[in-house]
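Input record, target 12 of the design panel.
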């Protein structure tokens, strides 16, 4: 009978080696570069931050259409020629497009965007909350009764 030897350390090293051989942002066949983005909600606004290293504000577009905010752009590949030795490029390049659905009622004219040191920050004011209103309802032929209700869209 053959004895099978399990070596967890070697298997873990192999697993982690294959994960870390390809950097997170690298582009491989069928995979595109997507910049990291954070969305933070405060009391009065949403704040979107996108890490866009190597890009300038001219390389990035921010649009709002039908309550969908879209950040898109392109990072161009740098070319370099080496005649001898090993050369490896890990910085990803290419086009990207990220979209975020916003709540109804966001004022497009109140959205602000700032680009500083490779970080895009988009500040989106929250829409005003619809205020509940009282609606008078007549029951049968009697006096109107007031009930609390809220306006629906």
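The sequence produced for target 12 reads:
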């Amino acid at each position: 009978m053959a004895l099978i030897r399990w070596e967890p350390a070697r298997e873990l090293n192999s697993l982690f080696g294959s994960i870390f051989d390809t950097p997170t942002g690298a582009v491989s066949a069928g995979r595109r570069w997507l910049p990291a983005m954070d969305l933070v909600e405060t009391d009065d606004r949403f704040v979107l931050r996108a890490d866009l290293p190597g890009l300038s504000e001219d390389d990035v577009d921010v649009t709002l259409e039908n309550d969908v905010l879209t950040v898109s752009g392109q990072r161009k590949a740098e070319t370099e020629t080496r005649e001898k030795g090993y050369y490896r490029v890990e910085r990803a390049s290419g086009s990207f497009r990220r979209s975020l659905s916003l709540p109804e009622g966001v004022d497009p004219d109140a959205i602000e965007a700032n680009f500083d040191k490779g970080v895009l920050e988009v500040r989106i004011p929250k829409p005003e909350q619809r205020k509940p209103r009282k609606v008078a309802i007549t029951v049968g032929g009697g006096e109107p009764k007031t009930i609390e209700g809220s306006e629906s869209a």
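The chain is about 10% helix and 40% strand.
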